[in-house]
Amino acid sequence: MNVAFIGMGTMGAAMALNILKAGHPVTVHNRSREREEPVARAGARRAVSPKEAAREADIVITCVSDTPDVEAVVLGENGIIQGAKAGAIVVDMSTISPSATRRMAGRLAEKGIRMLDAPVSGGSEGAQKGTLTIMVGGEAEAVAQAMPVLSAMGKSITHVGPCGAGQLTKAINQVIISGVYLAVAEGMALGLKAGMDMEKVVQALAGGAAGSWVLNYRAANMIKNEYPLGFRVRLHRKDLAIAMEAARELGVFLPATALVEQIENGLISQGYGDEDVSAVARMIRNHSGMK
């Protein structure tokens, strides 16, 4: 199956490499062209635009930062819609607005191009290992057709409903994990201030009801007060804005999410926007008198 992949960021490049490893021919494009080079060295073809990348593709994947970026890649002057053939499937694996997703799907459908929204969870580690959780919205037939490619990138792939449902599921995911990040940060600060052996504390907690992915993979960052990149604070803040917009539309009260959103605003204003989301612990540590 011929695949085009647009977006060679922290997640996208690793995802494209896994598709190559699964035996699918891949054409890549990125706005900053030098980011295409590592995937090209592994065997991918390079394209000068999304339009060119999509021309021969059965599946066109997008993985870029925000709603306007996806709209430009999909619907722009040199966008996918200008090059993709009828019957192709556009799979957007970015995290963007559900309503914008539905609008783009409508425009693509006019050209006989189907669209799936398939945002992911699992961070850069999951992208590298091919173990991402993928939440898919769209027509069941298109999901089935795209499954061999999705399976190269993810371990848990769930068709959650019609177009837009994948993005709304991802918004729910970001709401839930934002609270978990904050709670783990609070717990780590409490133990550190008490002088406890936090490696043993985390080991004890991991086997019980407090166990979580965040505890297992990000508590160490919070203990060391070091936040190497997994998923950027500024991108998570963008995701929370999408969730809060959906909550306002639906009349849902999200107080914990609103708090984390404000914490992340503060981190971004202090220059920490490109650190991992676990940097929410900085605020807890600062207000707890910890270096």
Describe this protein's structure:
The protein has 291 residues and is an alpha/beta fold. The protein folds into two domains: 160 residues, Rossmann fold, CATH 3.40.50; 120 residues, N-(1-d-carboxylethyl)-l-norvaline Dehydrogenase, domain 2 (Orthogonal Bundle). It contains 14 helices and nine strands. Strands 3-2-1-4-5-6 form a six-stranded parallel beta sheet, sandwiched between helices. The longest helix has 29 residues.
Quick structural gist:
This protein is of the alpha/beta class and 291 residues long. Helices cover 54% and strands 13% of the residues. It has 14 helices and nine strands.
Instruction: List SSEs in N-to-C order.
Output: EHEHEHEHHEHEEHEHEHHHHHH
Q: What is the CA-based Rg, rounded?
A: 20 Å
Q: What is the CATH-assigned architecture of the largest domain?
A: 3-Layer(aba) Sandwich
Determine the mean pLDDT: 96
Overall tally of domains? 2
Helix-strand category = alpha/beta
The total of beta strands comes to 9
- Summarize the amount of helix as a percent range: 40-55%
Q: Could you tell me how far the N terminus lies from the C terminus, measured between alpha carbons in angstroms?
A: 52 Å
Quaternary status: single chain
Overall geometry = globular
Low-confidence regions: none
Order of strands across the widest beta sheet? 3-2-1-4-5-6
Would you spell out the secondary-structure blueprint of this structure?
Layout (H helix, E strand, L loop, with lengths): L2 E4 L5 H10 L4 E4 L7 H5 L3 E2 L3 H5 L4 E4 L4 H9 L4 H4 L5 E4 L5 H12 L4 E4 L2 E2 L1 H7 L2 E6 L2 H14 E8 L3 H29 L4 H9 L6 H12 L8 H18 L4 H15 L11 H7 L4
Parallel strand pairs: 1-2, 1-4, 2-3, 4-5, 5-6, 8-9
Antiparallel strand pairs: 7-8
Helix pairs in contact: 1-7, 1-8, 4-6, 9-11, 9-12, 9-14, 10-11, 12-13
